[in-house]
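re the bet — no i am not wrong, look at it urself. input seq straight from the record:
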Amino acid sequence: MRDEAPRAVTAICRSLQEQIAHGLLQPSGQLPSERKLSELFDTTRITLREALGQLESQGLIYREDRRGWFVSPPRIAYNPLVRSHFHAMVQEQGRTPATEVLSARLVPAAADMCARLGLPALSGVIQIRRARRIDGRLVLYVEHYLNPSYFPGILDYDLTRSLTELYASEYDIHYGRVRFDMVPTALHPEAASTLRTAPGSPALRITRLNRDQQDRLIDCDVEYWRHDAIHVCVEVPEQCARGLRRTVKRV
């Protein structure tokens, strides 16, 4: 009896994996309800949810609150070495981007953000919260923190557009050095609610600390991606590869 549930989970996973692989279940297509799937596989709702959870962890399916389960679309390739922005990156891969502004205001800077941006204690910082979609699907919750000294009046502009382009066109500010930190994480309640999923769902957090052409710390982006929506792909330039080989030899 104890072996029946694991075998049932494996059988459900294999069946759905095959359906997805053969295109019978289309990307972004909705799966039948959990009740119907339980009846189809002649199993309990608990066993079915364990199988669905395993497929979700593999990035094959995803869940939206009050809507159900869906087949994950192809991932977007994300190359940190390419100077681009969300809309351009998505469009270049033949997909459709969209951005929604959740809030934009001047707020007291938290201690960690003061440290990141080199601001004195009790400073204000411009916070812009946005939700981003690919082909209509919510995939990214992002918080932007801007040093207000460099962006006077920015809250009056259309903030659904690329901030990269806005910086360049209105402030003659262009990105210079960028530091990336990428960490697998779980969605906090605010991010989860925005992405219509459960708090604690798996995500990839990408923190970008940006300097401009004068090497000034200008802003910090904290991105929370649905883990099945993104594929980080980096090709190391030959010059960097040579430096890496020299470092390895010395070690």
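see?? Helices lie at 4-21, 34-41, 45-57, 86-92, 111-117, 163-171, 189-194, 238-250. told u. also Residues 7 and 154 are 57 Å apart (CA to CA). so pay up
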